[in-house]
Fold:
Amino acid sequence: MTTKQDKKGVSRRSVLKGAAATAGAAIGSGAITGFPTIWAQNIKDVTLRQFGTGVSNLNDVAQKVKEDLGFTLEMTALDSDAVTQRAATQPGSFDIADIEYWICKKVWPTGNLQAMDTSKIKNYDKIVGIFKSGKLTPESEIAQGTAPHTVGFVDGPGGTSFASEETGWMTLIPTIYNADTLGIRPDLIGRPIESWTELLNPEFKGKASILDISSIGIMDAAMVCEAMGEIQYGDKGNMTREEIDKTMAIFTEAKKSGQFRAFWKTFDESVNLMASGEVVIQSMWSPAITAVKSRGIPCVYQPLKEGYRSWGGGIGLSSNLSGLELEAAYEYINWYLSGWVGGYLMRQGYYSAVPETSKEFMSENEWGYWFEGKEATDDITSPTGDKLATAGDTRDGGSFYDRMGAVACWNAVMDENQYMVRKWNEFIAA
Amino acid sequence: MSDHSQTTAAKTTSAPLQRRTMQGLPDAVSGWLLSLPLSLVLLFFLVLPIVMIVIVSFWGATEFSIYPAFQFDNYEFLLTSPVTYSVFLNTIKYAVITWAITLVLGFTIAYFLAFHIRSLTWQIVLFLLCTIPFWTSNIIRMISWIPFLGRNGLANSTLISWGVIDEPLEWLLFSDFSVILAFVHLYTLFMVVPIFNTMMRIDKSLIEAAYDNGATGFQTLTNVIVPLAKPGMMIGSIFVVTLVMGDFITVRFMSGSQKANVGRLISNDIALLQYPSAAATAVILLITVLIVIAILLRFVDIRKEL
Structure:
């Protein structure tokens, strides 16, 4: 208990230091862009409206922004469909969009977002390679699907088409990402699970589930079909009609024979299906595993030999932002990448775009467990205080480089998206 | 029967008639004025939105936007897809089964309340008891079935401990059974209320007359009570059928997203920003529901009976 309080003390002090530094930077950048220094006081009146998926729209972040930066951040959490809808159709309703990269591909052409000048992003150089060149390490191969770097840059401030390399104008500032796989109940399965094919294994008839969000569900389905050796995809993130037909045919057959217990659409549904034992193997998100575990029920985020399906989110700025509010938004982005949020998210099992700054906001034990894949030396708790692991546990899938290095494809929007959606609807109705 | 109700109707309308002529405003004018507020509300909140939906159903859509056009693509895709037919069939199946069960339940409960409970106080008390579940949201009432019916839920563990079954029953949850169970649970009251209402207005002397003429209890039921309760049954039926046909959330939760009805098709389209396609489906659904109601109204002339 005392050690925990010590840790808290340390982080609070370093936060204050960080805040002082950002405040200094704020005054500096204000001077450069020609704003009168008065704005440092005005910024308190600024309110930025952010919306996004539940994963990173955390009230703790809004509170911390008020503390560190002084302005107000209003958060709205929606599901990914609603997020897309809002970003595309209600540009006046938000200042900051916290969206996923595949949503960006869909929404950017509407012109509702504006490109960001990377020279104003202090930690730009430290952002991991996945979001810039697409490569985690110089030797990495680029995974299939809508890899973040392919929709991460545009040619200039008003650019509407994506650039293939770093241009200095970013569409989204990456904030959070992870590698997804299947979740299993090891106690109810009782044997090792190694491949995506297990999702359709008749052994788990009536005890499997997959998520009913077409653009993500189809990818999980594709991982399964490819692992079964039934289909060879050119690009799982951009299937042809024929590939979609074949994939859905395999899954429709499985559905008709009663393979699936249910499909889920929201985070809570996936947690309940797993925790109640209705389902023993299903597509799942990392914090959902954590939620099941925190009820004292064994649940593993099983690494599979075919690799992970990955996703990444970032912050985009509304094209309506200008002047003081735009400056505040840049301020917010710089703060976001400066470590506190990163540490917070990494302690939930996500990854931060700038891991090195997050390290300062995590204990050595936490950093070792979450990032380096080492054995925990002490209890691991979530930011909200739930115990997630005890000394001796290691993270499912290992270190950051093991996990993010084994990404097989990224969440994507296909060229044949409309066709895919119709086929997916048929699958659900079948 | 109809003679009787017409005479009472004539009696009740004659009083306001006299008053109106005394005020000196022509009937036509005051009639229009009286109906104006409701007409305006209906115009703005019912007619205009429906017109809008019909218009949009001919528009086109891209990934992220809709554009005005006059094309039949949405309808063409909808009416040529086998999925549409199976989904509509499924929707009608849910509606018919739910309707039949709620009608039997609703009639029985209303009959009990209206004819077996003698004192008005107890009638009111028991009627209010029926409405208690409505103090919570219908989503909560629906979701609370899930842990009850689940594989390791209360129903299965009880049955196993009684030795009735050895293996948990899988079809209790995430099946047509659970969907219809939830529908019946949610909507039976919509049947009880109008039937109870019409039954309470049945002149007790008619039942005495039937009894005096030597009718058995069952004959009284089929020849006196059922015909007189028809308007209530019909109103309840319209409630239940339209609610079930327009529902999407119950089907989604109780079938674990495994079954589809028309409402889910529409909600999926909306989620994917395919508003024109959603609008086209909504128009077809609206037409179907109107046809169903028209058929129901063929059986009973509600206007005459009220």
